[in-house]
TrEMBL record:
Keywords: DNA recombination. It holds the Pfam family Phage_integrase. This is Tyr recombinase domain-containing protein. GO terms for biological process: DNA integration; DNA recombination. The keyword Transmembrane helix does not apply. It comes from the Bacteria. It comes from Rhizobium grahamii. InterPro entries: DNA_brk_join_enz, Integrase-like_cat_sf, Integrase_catalytic. GO terms for molecular function: DNA binding. Residues 1-120 form the Tyr recombinase domain.
Length: 151
């Protein structure tokens, strides 16, 4: 792991994943006990298995009044990414999925109204970059005036 990127291979699919941590997450990690060769350890300092971690996380959630699990948090994270416009292939890279089918569960359910607006802005940006600069250059000028509507 470099200062802010965790690189690992998933246990289930043996797929390489790179996860960038925010400064806030780095700060939390620095305040947390870790092992020499294990990132997540028990109170005794021994590495947690994925099953032990899942059980510990679920119990911690329940103690905090949250009815979620580590898997639920993973699903929530995928939903947030898809709602923000992450593509199927970006989700595959982040979560270690090897088929588009798994990622599409989240992208199909993404906030379509928001994503439609984001896509419209992408089109607008491309018009400004690729078409608008040529409107006044005389290139392809047929004597007709072109109008770009800005929103």
């Amino acid at each position: 792991m470099t200062a802010d990127v965790l690189k690992l291979k998933t246990a289930k699919t043996n797929t390489a994943v790179s996860i960038e941590f925010s400064p806030r997450i780095i700060s939390l990690i620095e305040q947390t006990q870790t092992g020499d060769l294990a990132f997540i350890v028990s109170k005794k300092g021994t590495p947690l298995t994925k099953e032990s971690f899942g059980n510990w996380f679920r119990d911690a959630c329940r103690a905090a009044g949250v009815q979620k699990s580590a898997h639920g948090l993973r699903k929530f994270s995928a939903t947030l990414a898809a709602d923000a416009g992450a593509t199927s292939h970006q989700l595959m890279a982040q979560f270690g999925w090897v088929t588009v089918k798994q990622a599409e569960i989240y992208t199909k359910g993404a906030d379509r109204a928001h994503l439609g607006k984001v896509s419209s802005r992408l089109v607008e940006e491309q018009i400004k970059l690729k078409i608008a600069p040529h409107l006044n250059s005389g290139t392809g000028d047929s004597g007709k005036k072109s109008t770009i509507i800005e929103t």
